[in-house]
Amino acid sequence: MADHETGSAARAGEGRAIRVLLVDDHQVVRRGLRTFLEVQDDIEVVGEAADGSEGVARTEELRPDVVLMDVKMPGTDGIEALRRLRDLGNPAKVLIVTSFTEQRTVVPALRAGAAGYVYKDIDPDALAGAIRSVHAGHVLLQPEVAGALLSQEEGNGGSGGRGGTLTEREREVLGLIADGRSNREIARALVLSEKTVKTHVSNILMKLDLADRTQAALWAVRHNLTI
After folding, report:
1. Is 120 exposed, middle or buried (0-12, 13-18, 19+ CB in 10 A)?
2. What is the per-residue pLDDT across 132-182, written as a single tens digit (0 to 9) for each?
């Protein structure tokens, strides 16, 4: 499959373009995404894949910044592809773009490491914004997706009563996580080392019995700890 290389060197004065890989089993979907994204000055489509297994291989080969990944695909699905990329330690941010809205699909995808989850009926300009957002390190969820995660938390008994165990500094860090800040950005904002921030994040997850930063961000939003 041929890649479309536009050459980010030509845009060196404007900063390197965000390199994007498209992973979807429907060629018409990939074509539509490529057609729109290629007119964005700061986004470069570097390749395509038709299933999760090929998506993993292409992500390792092309090293994109952001992967747009469908969930339901023949063979290796998007969730399994996410798990493989996580196990490989691949740094690409994966934005799920799908038509499936069920909680049983949303939650596993985010727990497998997705940086965001949006639906295929998203406005094109909003999709470009979503790509920029996850590339910048933000957690991106459409309102319905956030609602699904919070509903599951409530169904599992939640962790609302544990907020009082956080120190004031941990609450500050949690608020910045909810704002989509990376550990480096949190360190700068609070004048701390990145190592100290990582320790705070680990303590927050442990105290609130949460699995990852996405759950932490949602917990903070639910409990009004946003910045």
Report:
1. middle
2. 988 987 777 766 565 555 555 555 545 555 555 889 899 899 888 887 788
